[in-house]
Amino acid sequence: MLPLRSLTTALAFSVSTLCGLSAQAQVQAPAFTSYQQFNDSLIAQFNRDDFKASEAYSSPALRQVEAAGSMTKFLTGLKAKTGRITATVPLREQGKRHEFEWRGEKQNLRVMLVSSVPGVLDDYFISDFIAQPNARTTPALTDNRQQSPLDQAVHRAATLYMQHPDAAGLSIGIYQGGKMSVYNYGEVEKGSGHRPTAATYYDLGSVAKTFVGTLLAQAVLDKKLKLDDDIRKYLPGSYPNLAFEGEPIRVLHLANHTSGMPTTAQVYSPARKEWQSKLSLVERTAYYNQYSADSLLRDMHQFQLATKPGTTYLYNGVAMLVLQLLLERVYQQPYEQLVTKYVRTRFGMADTKRVLSATEHQRYATGYDKRQQPQQHPNYTGYWGGPNMSSTAADLLKYAAANLAEREPAVRLAHQRTHGAEGEFGMGLSWMLDTDTNGSSRVYHDGQSIGFNTRFVLYPEQKLGIVLLVNENISQSRLTQLEQYLKQELPPVASASLTKSVR
Predict the structure, then answer these.
(1) What's the predicted TM-score (pTM) here?
(2) Do 370 and 228 belong to one domain?
(3) How many domains is the chain partitioned into structurally?
(4) Are 258 and 251 in contact (CB under 8 A)?
(5) Which of 402, 481, 474 has its CA nearest to residue 436?
(6) Would you say residue 49 lies in a domain?
(7) Largest CB tally within 10 Å, which of 290, 361, 390, 427?
(8) 3-state secondary structure of 241
């Protein structure tokens, strides 16, 4: 690592910002002899507000996915929020990736240049996921013994995450080389002095959609339905509106977010939304639970499709609820009963469910919304919003192991690409598919609910699973940064003997 060098220029950036654009083409490089020199030039340009000069380094492919002026506009709007950059230091290089730390008066930045030659930007990522000058000084509670290389790698990543003043609790699950490990940081309730454990419950948010997709795969194998079936085959009554230009919504379209359905079942007036926001937890739970499968079926008569089914990806929680409803109808069982039994018998997951008992609720972490207001978790059982589930780090590691092994035919089917070109972002059956910056295949889903964020990621080629659970809503992008940094820091695995280390 080169020594720090003082700089006399200023750069702007924003807290919790992640910027990345994928591209691979090369252009003729300016006269830079090293990436260190290229990095210094970028800083100097930022210092004098010459953002257009920085944008000019974009490769042709990068220009195809980023509109002209986007980088300039982005950096111009962020400049006043960072303060002066007083020093820089290289962090690491791997292939085309070159990382630098930029140290500023108000915050520090992690800058990754993805570049084929110095002076060409094929891609770039900038975030605040690095040690900060205003970080909390009191170490977070943890059960990490910091003994093994894995312990130490996790601790480096977790420490960066927990430095944020709004961080509450964090559970990290690692499935690597056949070994399951859980590490816990922070508190289940701020000020309580009680840290999370492997058995602490968190709300999974949209990660719950992966269970719907896996159950759909099982239903296909059980010959309960087919992926290319018109969904109206399983609905009571007539729905002529659930087609566009003669193309009906098919079961597959619900699972890969290409149905063209509206993303909200009902549109509320501003006054109604204001009224809902003032409901107590008990009142809000009762209100949302009144919205049943029959309510959704009634509102579906008013749906107007925006696009031809199967053509356009648009993330859609309502479509997933319709899929959940279809599964109830073809199996003639409540979804809660279906999914709880399935994950318990197939994956050994006894702590993954929608409805918790009073005793189980005692293990639930208190969530904190963006205003840092505590949110106790209710039992949502209705058809409002999107599929929901609660689980623990220990249970989700079992889920990771089962998905990586793919011994269950339904798991294999759920991972098969149904939308998007190979190597690009796409969908399986509710699972998201893409590659990381190293080109490694990734199967994943993120989740956010009031007071909770989740990231669940599988890397099949490395047989690696990462589970991240937090009881706050700082930002989903920050959790993504934690996962990516953690994968980068993990030590290599020598063997694949199955052991467990959960706390």
Answers:
(1) 0.86
(2) yes
(3) 2
(4) no
(5) 481
(6) yes
(7) 390
(8) coil
